[in-house]
Amino acid sequence: MNLKLKKLDKTLKLFLAAYLIALTAGVSIGVLFVRHTTHMSTEGVVERFAGSQSDDEFDIQEAYPKPISELIITTHNHILGLSFVFFTVGLIFYFNSLIDGKWKVLLMTEPLISLLISFGSIWLIRFYSPSFVYLTFISSLLMFASFYVMVAVSFFEICFIKK
User: Fold this and answer.
1) Which of 56, 120, 139, 160 is the most buried (most CB within 10 A)?
2) In degrees to the nearest 10, what's the CA dihedral of 159, 84, 31, 145?
3) What are phi and psi of 53, to 5 degrees?
4) Phi/psi at 63 (nearest 5 deg)?
5) pLDDT tens-digit readout, 54-87
6) What gap in Å lies between CA 119 and CA 16, rounded to an integer?
7) In angstroms, rounded to a whole number, what is the distance separating the alpha carbons of residues 160 and 163?
8) Structural domain boundaries in the chain
């Protein structure tokens, strides 16, 4: 297919640029929420899903382990919602003329793979071992890095590269 972002009509370019800005704002607010609730620390993530540890049986825990029902709904909502986000950004990114070949395929598929790993790993943190927090961090970092690169490249081509 020979369709490229830089060759699109001005109206469609404006629409896609506005969509990418709005979508990026929404995703970034989600990242800020994670920062607010976990302080972007391994301890914060473990506490969010597995609960806080207490040394004394009389201590009151600050955070309790997430109930299964809450883990299910969190996993369900994020996998469905973010799959759609990554699909639409990947679809727009597909038509860029700046990145091609294996890098294009990697950037388009990586967020979807990391999405499954990230939300699978929170179950592992909760029910198996807090050590899986590192898997959560790595997969989440790759997922959002790929998202922001695809958005930046697409936005750059839409707004700054002429036919």
Assistant:
1) 139
2) -60
3) -90, 140
4) -135, 135
5) 555 655 556 778 889 999 999 999 999 999 999 9
6) 29
7) 10
8) 8-160
